[in-house]
Amino acid sequence: METIFTELESNVRSYCRSFPKVFGKAKMCEMYDEDGQRYLDFFSGAGALNYGHNNPYIKDSLMNYLETDGILHALDMFTEAKRTFLDIFKEYVLNPKGYDYKVMFCGPTGTNSVEAAVKLARKVKGRETIFAFSGAFHGMTLGSLSLTSNIELRKGAGIPLNNVVFMPFPYGFNASFDTIGYIENILNDDHSGIEKPAAIIVETIQAEGGVVVASSDWLKRLRDMCDQHDILLICDEIQVGCGRTGTFFSFERAGIVPDLVTLSKSISGLGLPMSLLLFKSEYDIWNPGEHNGTFRGNQLAFVCGSAALEYMYKEDLLNAVKIKEEFLVNFIEHEILSSYPLLKYRGKGLIYGIDFSRVPEKDVCFKVARKCFERGLIIERAGRNDSVLKILPPLVITLAELKEGLSKVKESIDEVFCDNF
Ligand SMILES: Cc1ncc(COP(=O)(O)O)c(C=O)c1O
User: Fold this and answer.
1) Phi and psi, residue 269, nearest 5°
2) Which of 252, 276, 316, 346 has the greatest number of C-beta atoms within 10 Å?
3) Who contacts 262 (Cβ-Cβ below 8 Å, separation ≥6)?
4) Which helix H or strand E contains 239, and what residues bound it?
């Protein structure tokens, strides 16, 4: 059936293909389509809605701001909203851990922060090459796409994507293969044919890559290697930051401090566009206006982002994530995987993936996700051949909702396996 969407909206549209309904309202972990049908959200706007839809605490701050004619657009001028956000970010995020980061507001979306990160790293070190990892996703603008490993997506650039060399992420190799040792070897070998990079960019958990978790030990070794070779470490926290893994930054579990950190998605609290880059103050060598842009620092996002940080600590959300993770892991292990030995799972905090790649039949994960949607559960796929079902609920989900969603996943797997095998 043709609709205004299919008639007018470009073929590039994507998520609406997985969830082909017209949505009208949403509250915390629930979305409603125009017919009033309820859906439980296990997708969280790809990580932009950690605090849920229309979280009342955050929304109230937005409503108050709008009612008092707070400023809505100001380029990067000083505003009260920005001052409050910076104060709160310093108080809740930077000071408790003693981070010496400068904050740079980038264009509105995640990829803008990645672009700024590699631009600054190249400027600081005076080198062109960046190392990224196989399985990485860092965004779709040219610089970020050059750091993204998916071959099909890269083709979309239409030009060569240069100055990035992909290194092996610890996934898919024989367990004895030492990926850090391999990179180290390249760096020490003056005949490796690979130039020393300005920076290495890493996701501690490759979310789009199929929820692949780097171990703390691996991350520590990566950090040490960067130090030894005078290479900057960029941590892309866009999807797994903001409390997703049970700490504010996902790299905290490894006890490492990256030189640059990209943040977006849930940093704005309510799903509004905002993106920022953190970097150690010694690297603040930008000239004024050298990385300009009209929409850097969305004022409404400052207001909601401030409220979100207050909410996170007031509600002790980070500890709650750990409790919910325990429930989730228990359910996956005992209620799902016990019946399907070919399936694997992995994750951290409230990002988990169920991996169908060992099931020989094609499209099983796709079929499971579709059945989930028919049951009123919004859930996406990720990874090689989209073979990983990605469980990414808002952090505010209740245990009852978590159980409800996971039961729908189980029923959908049961149905697909019963139909197909
Ligand atoms: C780790 C990571 N980096 C960068 C991006 C790009 O963010 P955006 O889509 O907002 O440009 C994403 C988006 O999913 C992401 O997951």
Assistant:
1) 80, -50
2) 276
3) 110, 113, 114, 117, 234, 235, 236, 237, 238, 275, 276, 277
4) none
Q: What confidence tier does 260 reach under pLDDT thresholds 50, 70, 90?
A: very high
User: What spacing in Å lies between the alpha carbon of 306 and ligand 1's midpoint?
Assistant: 21
pLDDT class for 421, splitting at 50, 70, 90?
low
User: Among all chains, which residue has been given the structure tokens 């903001």?
Assistant: 242
Residue 222 tokens, joined: 């990566």
153 lines ligand 1 (CB under 6 A): no
Per-residue pLDDT tens digits for 179-206: 999 999 999 999 999 999 999 999 999 9
Delineate the domains of the chain, giving CATH numbers in brackets: 4-55+316-420 (3.90.1150.10), 59-314 (3.40.640.10)
Question: 137 CB less than 6 Å from ligand 1?
Answer: yes
120 lines ligand 1 (CB under 6 A): no
Neighbours of 392 (CB within 10 A): 28
pLDDT above 70 as % of the chain: 100
Residue with the smallest CA separation from ligand 1 atom 13 is: 139
378: pLDDT strictly greater than 80: yes
CA-to-CA distance for 310 and 246, rounded, in angstroms? 16
Reading the block at residue 391, the tokens are 């469980």
Give the model confidence (pLDDT) of 207-223 as tens digits: 999 999 999 999 999 99
CA of 237 to the centre of ligand 1 (A): 9
